[in-house]
Write a structure and sequence with these properties.
The protein is α+β, with helices and mostly antiparallel strands and 753 residues long. Helix content is 65%, strand content 7%. The longest helix has 43 residues. It is a multi-pass membrane protein. InterPro entries: LSM_dom_sf (IPR010920), MS_channel_1st (IPR049142), MscS_beta-dom_sf (IPR023408), MscS_channel_2nd (IPR006685), MscS_channel_C_sf (IPR011066), MscS_channel_TM-2 (IPR011014), YbiO-like_TM1 (IPR057485), YbiO_bact (IPR045276). This is Mechanosensitive ion channel domain-containing protein. Belongs to the MscS (TC 1.A.23) family.
Length: 753
């Protein structure tokens, strides 16, 4: 079908061309208008010869075999066109790879040609640039001297202030350190602005005519402001003179070393591109300015490569958190990063730490190639982008350092808050490190994105204002806000429950209140988790209506399939409403007696006298026996011999109870007088006397044991027998009353055997 269509189009265009040629030859000489394709088609239809020729061509196209090569028709139409869609897959792949290889070779040849011509940029140097710079420095000497003197004088005055702020940050918390860190940055920036302003005042009032300033002075002062502000950012991160305000986990010598080298690079690039190059451009030539710019860039890149190679091992040890290793340059030997990070790098991170210098060298060599191929303004733009990457990385390290310190120090609440809510600080210290870890990941991602945007690999602003970017950022902010609000509600709820259960403040919670508050906390936590999950899914963009419907169906299925669990929950609810037992009660449930340690909506957990822990589902509970409900009784069944007088034994028991009440350790647990019930039963060897003592719930067992001890002492003192089991032996007798004789042999002590 495609071949037929192509043939028809070819024939049609051929006929139209012939008709147009005939029309052009037969047209009057005065005809100058152009005819449309419709007019040409009408001419073909009206002309019998042209129409017959078109019909013959169409019949010939219909006779083309279906397996004829498709590229024959394409080549007849136009040479060099793209391969048709019905060409073989291998042919299409071959054509694409052929074109790609040719493009790569062409690009490589162009690149090599530009690289071989790169040294020509230095041909713009005429040799007179040094004299021009010397002359310019003579004109700028007073402005430079005045600005530098004011700047260093203010910096000298600020050093004592930095030292005091560092000492204050060392003794304070993270919040104070952040405030002092920001204050030191503002003071440093104000010093630069004051020195810059003093230079402008000196240039406009003391040099030349009052109120006028030369272009060279303006160039220098603007370069001074930008360069020194960049150095402020470097000092802000490294803090060479304020140890406690330094966010990076490095020592004083390392901070001083890095600060001096980075400031040197910033100064050379900044003053070179903002002051030296414009002076050379205006006084020598633009070619000389480009050459000077390239020369500055090459010198700076060479210095940076030397720094990377010299300090590669020390930086590797710092990244790995390893103190044991060779110390090559000044940065090593003073840092103690292991104490801050608390662990070594592992796996891919360790490999990257050991070979970090290769990506750094590759980046610097790429900058070198860019400088050689695109001298001039491109050099400054490249270094500006690299400076932005460096600043973003340092700020990311600074923020990460602050977060690391916060994670190490933890959250410390005031004593008045900790006393009221003792578990709040532990919960915060369990949550805050995780939140800070996520924040560190966000900072790392932000640093990477800003660095890629600085070097031009991505357009972060366009991505942020795009529909997808706005939706993504809105979703992230919404989900973060939902999670924070949910955590705040959960923290407030649990803190309120802890405060109500704290016996040191307010009214002491009863056992029922403790049980209900614990259940409330658990149920509210589950409900809050479910609601938060629904909100998060809705913010992500998922339709939660089908989820809710599915949850309803699933709940119905679970209700039918887990009837035992449903029975557990329903029975547990009624047990809680009836206040049958609470945490701390001694109960008998399903034949198990023990202390209630845990109550949920589904089961009760008991620990018996032997320490065995029992979990009993409420569906198996048919009766609850609570031994500590309101009050308890100790029932005393006292056995006395048949020969003893009951009234005497009764009086002894009353006297023993009076002695027990005199014991201060037991008196506060006795709620009423001894209840005497009298003779309860007649045993095989004793008469059972029963009495009862009403006690504070839970104290009846201890009071009973104490009463038994006193009662034993009183009975012994009054010679009242507490009998042990007696047994009468009967040998039987004959009808005439005779019994069987028993021979008893007596041994006298000391007799011979």
């Amino acid at each position: 079908m495609l071949r037929l269509l192509a043939s028809v189009l070819a024939s049609l265009f051929f006929v139209l061309g012939a008709a147009h040629a005939q029309d052009g030859s037969g047209a009057p000489s005065g005809t100058t208008g152009q005819r449309t394709s419709v007019d040409l088609l009408l001419d073909v239809i009206e002309d019998d010869a042209a129409r017959a020729e078109l019909v013959e061509r169409l019949r010939g196209a219909d006779a083309v075999p279906p397996d004829a090569p498709g590229d024959v028709i394409v080549e007849s139409l136009s040479d060099g066109a793209a391969p048709p869609e019905d060409a073989s897959f291998g042919r299409r792949i071959a054509l694409v790879t052929q074109q790609a290889a040719e493009d790569v070779v062409d690009w490589g040849m162009q690149f090599w040609g530009q690289l071989t011509r790169a040294p020509e940029v230095f041909g713009g140097l005429s040799g007179g640039e040094a004299g021009v710079l010397a002359e310019a420095l003579k004109d700028l000497a007073l402005v430079i001297a005045g600005t530098v003197v004011v700047f260093f004088a203010l910096r000298w005055l600020g050093k004592s202030l930095y030292a005091s702020m560092s000492a204050s940050a060392r003794d304070g918390g993270v919040a104070r350190m952040v405030v002092l860190f920001t204050t030191s940055a503002v003071i440093d920036a104000v010093i630069v602005v004051l020195a810059w302003g003093a230079g402008y005042v000196l240039a406009t009032l003391a040099l030349g005519e009052i109120g006028q300033i030369g272009i060279r002075q303006t160039l220098y002062l603007n370069a001074f402001l930008l360069v020194e502000m960049a150095k402020v950012a470097v000092r802000l991160v490294l803090s060479p003179s304020a140890t406690s305000l330094r966010p990076l986990p490095i020592g004083d010598r390392a901070a001083s070393y890095l600060s001096s080298r980075i400031n040197l690079i910033v100064g050379v690039v900044g003053y070179g591109q903002l002051l030296v190059v414009p002076i050379i451009n205006s006084n020598v030539s633009f070619a000389a300015g480009r050459a000077v710019s390239a020369l500055i860039a090459v010198a700076v890149l060479g210095f940076a490569i030397w720094l990377v190679l010299r300090n590669r091992r020390s930086v590797t040890h710092w990244l790995l958190g390893d103190d044991a290793g060779p110390r090559v340059a000044a940065p090593e030997g003073t840092a103690d990063p292991a104490s801050v990070r608390g662990r070594r790098a592992r796996g891919a991170l360790a490999y990257l730490a050991r070979h970090w210098h290769w990506p750094a060298l590759a980046y610097l060599l790429a900058l070198f190639v860019i400088v050689m191929l695109r001298p001039g303004d491109a050099v400054f733009q490249t270094f500006l982008a690299s400076g932005q990457v460096l600043v973003v990385g340092l700020l990311g390290f600074a923020a990460s350092g602050f977060i690391s310190r916060a994670m190490v120090r933890g959250v410390s609440l005031p004593s008045r808050v900790s006393d009221r809510v003792p578990l709040l600080q532990g919960r915060l210290n369990a949550f805050v490190p995780r939140m800070l870890f996520v924040l560190r990941l966000v900072i790392f991602a932000g640093v990477v994105l800003l660095a890629l945007n600085a070097i031009g690999l991505i357009d972060l602003r366009a991505a942020m204002i795009s529909q997808f970017g706005l939706r993504l950022t809105g979703m992230i902010l919404s989900v973060s806000l939902v999670l924070l609000v949910s955590f705040g509600l959960w923290l407030a709820l649990t803190s309120w429950v802890d405060y109500r259960l704290n016996p040191g403040f307010g009214s002491v919670a009863t056992a029922r209140e403790r049980t209900l508050l614990t259940l409330l906390r658990n149920a509210a936590t589950i409900a809050l988790v479910i609601i938060t999950l629904m909100f998060v899914l809705a913010e992500i963009g998922l339709d939660i209506a089908p989820l809710l419907a599915s949850a309803g169906v699933l709940g119905l299925a679970i209700g039918f399939g887990a009837q035992k669990m449903v029975q557990d929950i329903i029975t547990g609810i009624f047990i809680q409403f009836e206040n049958a037992m609470n945490v701390g009660d001694v109960v008998t449930v399903s034949g198990v007696t023990g202390t209630v340690e845990r109550l949920t909506i589904r089961s009760v957990s008991l620990r018996d006298l032997h320490g065995v822990f029992h979990i009993i589902p409420f569906s198996s509970v048919d009766m609850v026996s609570n031994y500590v409900k309101d009050y308890g009784y100790f029932v005393c069944d006292m056995a006395v011999a048949y020969r003893e007088d009951v009234d005497e034994a009764k009086q002894a028991m009353l006297d023993a109870f009076a002695e027990l009440k005199g014991d201060p350790d037991q008196a506060d647990g006795i709620l009423d007088e001894l209840e005497w019930f009298g003779v309860n039963s007649f045993g095989d060897s004793a008469v059972m006397l029963r009495a009862r003592i009403k006690c504070v719930p839970g104290r009846q067992w201890g009071i009973g044991r104490a009463y038994n001890g006193v009662l034993k002492t009183v009975f012994d003192a009054r010679n009242i027998e507490i009998p042990f089991p007696h047994q009468t032996i009967y040998f039987g007798e004959t009808k005439d009353g005779r019994t069987q004789s028993v021979k008893v042999a007596m041994e006298t002590p000391g007799a011979a055997a």
